[in-house]
Every structure is written in structure tokens, then in C-alpha cells.
């Protein structure tokens, strides 16, 4: 199935595995790439040395194209961009809109630039700055998310820009892919669906928690870092939502201390990173610290398997997922379902034509 996305990045199928912190490592990304989709490494939870090593590990596992996801507001963003260029990575994706200068630097080196956006005006801005494509995440998507559903946001963006648009938020199967194509998208991006594969390194106990969740067990809360964050409702989320300011601050300091030891960041740098995530919001000091060390909260669950201590970012679609296929099985299934769905549409049109 050839689309503007497959032509742009050189993959066989119009499917993207998103860059999920602590989840999208070399094993998942290389498995996705070998399956013919676009795997994206999550670099925000890596040091620059770890990022270079991860890129080289993926390259040792596959010759297929893959990408790296960056935080545009990171203090070392330019160093990470240089690693992407030096190592010959095909795609750079961004969780926040990159500057016009960063886009130009990547494009001059032949790297495809695909920012993720959550509003039409953001898509228009990065398109004007030279982005090659955009990933549009509707409110159903996991992690930091907006209020507009994919089915409303997607056609807005498709109509507003002349670059390929990749739909994210609420996708798990071939029917969703066909629906996205019908809206004018060039493909779909999936996070939670790839997290729940046998190639994902997320601990089995955490995967089981996701598989057991229903649609209503996936919630949006601002208790973690002051921003709307879609995740599984857990003991940790409930504790944060009901904690007073003093208790919340104490919890935030304790977790921030752990993240500082792992990351090597100074307290001042962590506070600066937390403040950078405010986006004009009125955050308490506990939320500022939690915003800075949200990676630690994710690591507790996604790496350490502590569902009681960590947050579990999740798309709403987790409530519909019931199995753990390999990436190869998942991509093959999605494409088979997509062709079947397209065939059903064609057959329906033929019947309609015959009746007329």
C-alpha cells in the first residue's frame, strides 16, 4: 500500500510506531522496522551517549529506515540533532514543535522532519517552516494530549496543510488505517498498540495491567504535572489526585531526587525543564518538579514493573486491545484487515451501482 508516507520515508507500510519514553528502545524499533513500518526511538529518556549507542544498535539489527524522537526544548537538542545527522538516521520526529533553524539543519542534511502536533495552527506553523510531514494526535492518544478527537482534528489539519499528515490517537487495526486514509491521511501512528506486543520490553506484569483495562479505566488527569495527561487509572494516579499540596510536594521531591541521580541533572536544570513544560499553565511547585521528573514516574512502571509507583501513559484504545502479537504479526494483521476493509467498500459500491 503506497502512500505519501511510504514514499517519503521509504517504508513498505503506512504505519508509524511512536517514540514512547522507556518503551521505544532498539528492540522494539528494529522489530517494527523489519516488519516494514517506521519505528521511532524515544531519546528523551536517554543521555546523548545512550542515544548514539541505541541508534547504532538499531542499525546493527536492520537496514530498514527508522527515526528518532526528540524534545525540541531540551537543552542539548542541537547535540542530539548532530547525532541523528552523523549516524545517518532517516527521520527526526519531535514531541514539541522544533524551531525553524533546527528543521533547516536537519533538512539540509537529508533528514526527514516530522513533528507531532495537537492543533491545526501548530501544523500550519511547522509546515511553513519546512517540516516534511506532521503526526496529528487527537485526544484519544496517550501521554500529554488535547481535547479534540482525532476524527475532528484530522480533517482540519489535512485541509490546512499540503504535506503528508499521519493520524494518531485511537488506532489499533486495519479498519482504523482505512478510516484515516479516507480522511486524507497518509498513514497512522500507534503507540499503545506497539507497547502491547511481544517485542516490547515493558514488563509482563505491566502489559497484563494494560490488557485488563477497559475503556473507562483510561483517564485524563492533570495531577501528575499540571497538564492533561492520558494514562491508566492506578493507585499512583489516585494518590496524586487526592494529595494535598504539602504531601504532593514531598512526593515530588522524593521522586525528583531519584530521577536526578539517574539522569545526572542538577536541581536547577530539573526546575528549568519543569518550568519549560508549563505552557502558560498555573503549576504548583510539586507539579513543576513532577513535570521535570515525569520520566522517572514512567520508568517505575515501564522498566521496573512497579504499577503501584509509576504512571502508565495509555491511549484510550488500550481498552480494546486483548493480545500481544509480535511487531511482524501486528503489521501483517493491520495490513490484511485494511485490504479487507477496502475490498468491502469496493463491493458495497458495486452493489450500489448495480441497484441503481
UniProtKB/TrEMBL annotation:
Family matches, as SUPFAM superfamilies = Inosine monophosphate dehydrogenase (IMPDH)
Look up and give the organism this protein is from: Streptomyces atratus
- GO MF terms, alphabetically ordered: dioxygenase activity; nitronate monooxygenase activity
* PANTHER family the UniProt entry points to: 2-NITROPROPANE DIOXYGENASE, 2-NITROPROPANE DIOXYGENASE-LIKE PROTEIN
What are the entry keywords? Dioxygenase, Flavoprotein, FMN, Oxidoreductase
Gene3D superfamilies named among the record's database cross-references: Aldolase class I
| Domain of life according to the entry | Bacteria
Q: Kindly provide the name given to this protein in its UniProt entry.
A: NAD(P)H-dependent flavin oxidoreductase YrpB, nitropropane dioxygenase family
Q: Which InterPro entries match?
A: Aldolase_TIM, NMO
User: Signal peptide: which range, if any?
Assistant: none
